[in-house]
Amino acid sequence: MSKLEELVAELCPDGVEYKELSEILTIKNGSDYKSFGTGDIPVYGSGGVMTYIDRAAYDKPSVLIPRKGSIDKLYYVDTPFWNVDTIFYTVINLDYALPRYVYHCLLREHLEQYNTAGGVPSLTQKVLNKIKIPVPPLGVQSEIVRILDNFTELTAELTAELTAELTARKKQYEYYRDELLSDGSNNIKIKTIGELSRFRRGSFPQPYGNAEWYDGEGAMPFVQVADIGEDMRLVDNTKRKISVVAQPKSVFAPKGSIVISLQGSIGRIAVTQYDAYIDRTVAIFQDLSGELVFKYFVYQLQRIFSIKEKTARGSTIKTITKEEFTDFPIVIPSINEQERIVSILDRFDTLCNDLTTGLPAEIEARQKQYEYYRDRLLSFKEL
């Protein structure tokens, strides 16, 4: 028998009482902070910490509950803090409940289901005060908190480890990519991008009729900068479409084309996995020279634009022109050497992508594990 089972058998064998939040805590409103000086006290809004000031609204452990906006985001705070009007704080009666226990219980409630507004999600004290949670003896609460906190700590540690591993692998990949693709030997041919391919920007969309997008016969996805992922693929774009009938000057990018972003997130490259039209902030490379292996050219573009992005113009939205990169030199070793380089970089790329996709999947699995045990641990027979 586990320690928790022993405590339940000893302290509440017949079940526990379920209490409304109004019976175990008081919900308090936030207020403005702008008249105060700068300090080290965090100011919380519905999105998290906003700034730091020199005084606190409350200095005991509390659960912060967003009143507007991200109402599914709860914060447990055990140091002095200030909160603005978009988020409540709670004064918890320690004779009934541990603040950390209340936090886990409210996470289980999925407070977004209590939304009272049609526009910006909102919660009211009236609705929150009526929510019931199980209130076992404090000893049982303490053990439940210990178990659930262990899950969250392990998840945080795993996330940090995987993130560090991914960062290290990406740096290693970039180092070897730059080394392999920038051979300066005198007997290696060098040509510019403009000599090796034809470059064409996309066009600005003209929506079909009065509709924003056309989804009828002949419709095709319309690719913008945001659709170019970091894994050299396009995102799945099925909603934003235009018609060649309505857009006769559209620039067509057939499946298997090399496209690249020229504004904002500069230098994102993808090999298209579906036919599409492309926006003017995106360019397509066509008529690739037979001197180059296709994937070798893709990797060279990736390297070049990682350099060019640092010198791109614009303080808010970065941009780069055709003239600024078409003269950029590309090293052209033998076809066999290009294929060897591609093979090496493909392995690195696969490893990085496996980690990139595996990280959120692992975090999600841990979160589901936490939710499973949380729901089991907080399910008591009601007196």
Describe this structure in words.
This protein is of the alpha+beta class and 383 residues long. The protein has 9 helices and 19 strands. A 4-stranded antiparallel beta sheet has the order 2-8-5-6. A 4-stranded antiparallel beta sheet has the order 11-18-15-16. Helix 5 (138-181) runs antiparallel to helix 9 (335-377). It is elongated. The mean pLDDT is 84.
Give the tags.
383 residues, elongated, alpha+beta, four-stranded antiparallel sheet
Write down the secondary-structure element order.
Answer: HEHEEEEEEEHHEHEHEEEEEEEEHHEH
Q: Going across the major beta sheet, what is the strand order? A: 2-8-5-6
Helix share bin: 25-40%
- Which secondary-structure class do the elements indicate? alpha+beta
Distance between the termini: 23 Å
Give the beta-strand count.
19
- Overall geometry: elongated
Assess the beta-strand content as a share of residues: 15-25%
Evaluate the radius of gyration.
Answer: 28 Å
Largest sheet: 4 strands, antiparallel
What is the number of helical segments per DSSP (H or I, 4+ residues)? 9
What average pLDDT do the residues reach?
Answer: 84
Summarize it.
With 383 residues, the protein is of the alpha+beta class.
Which secondary structure elements does this structure contain, and how are they paired or packed?
Layout lengths: L2 H9 L5 E4 H4 E4 L9 E8 L2 E6 L8 E5 L8 E3 L4 E2 L3 E6 L6 H11 L15 H5 L2 E4 L2 H44 L7 E4 H4 L1 E4 L17 E5 L17 E3 L7 E3 L4 E4 L7 E3 L4 E3 L3 E5 L7 H15 L13 H4 L3 E4 L2 H43 L6
Parallel strand pairs: 3-7, 12-17
Antiparallel strand pairs: 1-9, 2-8, 3-4, 5-6, 5-8, 10-19, 11-18, 12-13, 14-17, 15-16, 15-18
